[in-house]
Amino acid sequence: MSKSSFIDALIASVVMLILTSWLLGLQLDNQPDGLRIILNDAAHTTWVIVGVVLVFFTQLFKAPISRVFSGIKSKGQDSGFKLPAPEEKPTLYRFLTIAALAGLLIWPFVASRGAVDLATLTLIYVMLGLGLNVVVGLAGLLDLGYVGFYAVGAYTYGILNTYFGVGFWTALPIAGCLAALFGFLLGFPVLRLRGDYLAIVTLGFGEIIRIMLNNMTEVTGGPNGISQIDKPTLFGLEFNRRASSDEATLFHDFFGLDYSSNYKVIFVYLAAVLLVVLTVFVINRLLRMPIGRAWEALREDEIACRSLGLNPTIIKLSAFTIGAAFAGFAGSFFAARQGFISPESFTFIESAIILAIVVLGGMGSQVGVILAAIIMTILPEMAREFNEYRMLMFGLMMVFMMIWRPQGLLPMTRPKMEMRNG
Amino acid sequence: MLELKNVSAHYGQIQALHDVNISVGAGEIVSLIGANGAGKTTLLMTICGDPKASNGEILFEGEPIHQQSTSQIMRKDIAIVPEGRRIFARLTVEENLHMGGFFLDDKAEFARLEQEVYELFPRLLERKHQRAGTMSGGEQQMLAMGRALMSKPRLLFLDEPSLGLAPIIIQQIFDIIEKLRDKGITVFLVEQNANQALRLSDRGYVIENGRIVLEDTGANLLTNEEVRKAYLGG
């Protein structure tokens, strides 16, 4: 019961008092002349005081109480050696993350419109790279038809929007789920194959999707594609110059700004940032869960996995499905950004680029994949003046890369821990 | 604990096991010896359900398991240290061990098992955060055993644990197998290194061309004339 715990207890009970007196002590009363705030009756006040006193004493005696409980648990644990504790996350790492995030958020307000648009495209590739990274980098399944799931996502939003007027934010999860469903359906017959055979079948799948979109003219518009797909809205606020319908509110009207098409670009960009951050977070979580470790174990040795009682089919299927879901998200985002989609956008070269991003970044490494996605989208843009030599340079770069850094830009690192006192 | 009754197995058209009868009692160390290609590994794989037995019955603690899938069988109190170790090379030692306890839900039990494995193989604790593929063969064998033990087995299969290891390391591995018996784990050992395996074993079987040709106590097999000639170098 040191001085600090007394202060802690005091602060906790004051906070408790402030919170509960608002919630329990006051009441809104509907009077004829409008709402009135009135004090609650004495019973409530008593309970508030009882609660505050309770909080004060639990906080005050927190240390002895928790000691009692920890004593029960840790009995018999102190035998011999201590397991090493995880190393603290380096502050530099945390600082860099925050700096990168801040940079991402400031970027659209300082950069030109074209640069922001390019950044949005980059973010889509980041999303695709991260998704494919689950399949190829972590689970070790070579998927050459990843663009098929991307197309499924894009066309889901395109079709839902044109035929049913579904908004972007509603269509996004549907697109993800549908792409995941396709991944699941493809996975079932295919996943008993491995290596080269799997690659060929997935390659075929990607082409089938594209050709199907090309030929289902009544629904997808065939080679003409789907145009005038709506942009995302901000809680229903549209970014157009004029409202699409009478009920719709416009962003610049709502905030009393002059119309500028930049708002739309910036908003789409910020939505992409949000989605990428979400993707990184979700995949990071998955990696720390048993399923993430199982993916990696499967990549290393399938027979060993089976000997441990794991079912390789389920593990592969989960990787395939989850990877496909992220492609679906990216796809519907792509459709929203372009406003126009056609089968042209989903050719094999897209699959190849996404795969190159994963390999270039370092299989399994998230930061590496993000870095590679940035390089792979920005370099071709910057090298535009080289025209036809562009792809040549690009190919050369890949060749040198594989000679000098075959493990990728930032290969996956295993979490490090330190042994304390030997 | 484990009983095989007239078990046969086929790879396609080819019959690899012929009417094998084997029983392993609780707490025993039983070894199976035989030459290359005699069917030792096939026998283990058949018990694990891959390939499935084409004929006969396999009982684990009285429960028939020969119809079940590999993942169902391996989730029982059975673990295998596969031939050639088959560790997860690019995962760390710790992650390898955690994969072993994949289906263990009880966290406290998990931690206890992990500690037990580290006590049994102090080398693994030293290398906890090293990538498994960068360790020596002996250390990898220890890791494979540790990983199998993490699933808290009562019956442990070891497929050629001495394969490609230095004699001094082999001795260590066999010492540990004895320790496992003291912990109450039943061990079924498949070995080419007949001498050391039989010395440790309560009982042994000799397999030839997919048939069990001999069955006796470990000590008797060691002195058996035929066995000496065929497997112990005269």
Automatic annotation (TrEMBL), chain A:
High-affinity branched-chain amino acid transport system permease LivHM N-terminal domain location: 5-107
Identification of the protein by name: High-affinity branched-chain amino acid ABC transporter permease LivM
PANTHER family membership: HIGH-AFFINITY BRANCHED-CHAIN AMINO ACID TRANSPORT SYSTEM PERMEASE (PTHR30482), HIGH-AFFINITY BRANCHED-CHAIN AMINO ACID TRANSPORT SYSTEM PERMEASE PROTEIN LIVM (PTHR30482:SF20)
Topological relation to the membrane, as annotated: Multi-pass membrane protein
Record key words, sorted: Cell membrane, Membrane, Transmembrane, Transmembrane helix
Subcellular location: Cell inner membrane
Transmembrane found in the keyword field: yes
Regions crossing the membrane: 6-26, 38-61, 92-110, 122-142, 162-188, 195-213, 266-287, 308-333, 353-379, 391-410
Any Pfam family matching the protein: BPD_transp_2
Predominant localisation class: membrane
From TrEMBL, chain B:
Recorded superkingdom: Bacteria
InterPro entries per UniProt: AAA+_ATPase, ABC_branched_ATPase_LivF/BraG, ABC_transporter-like_ATP-bd, ABC_transporter-like_CS, BCAA_Transport_ATP-bd_LivF, P-loop_NTPase
One annotated GO molecular function: ATP binding
Species of origin: Motilimonas cestriensis
SUPFAM superfamilies registered for this protein in UniProt: P-loop containing nucleoside triphosphate hydrolases
Gene3D superfamilies: P-loop containing nucleotide triphosphate hydrolases
Pfam hit, one: ABC_tran
Domain ABC transporter, first and last residues per copy: 2-234
SMART domains: AAA (SM00382)
Protein name: High-affinity branched-chain amino acid transport ATP-binding protein
PANTHER family: HIGH-AFFINITY BRANCHED-CHAIN AMINO ACID TRANSPORT ATP-BINDING PROTEIN LIVF (PTHR43820)
Family: Belongs to the ABC transporter superfamily.
UniProt keyword list: Amino-acid transport, ATP-binding, Nucleotide-binding, Transport
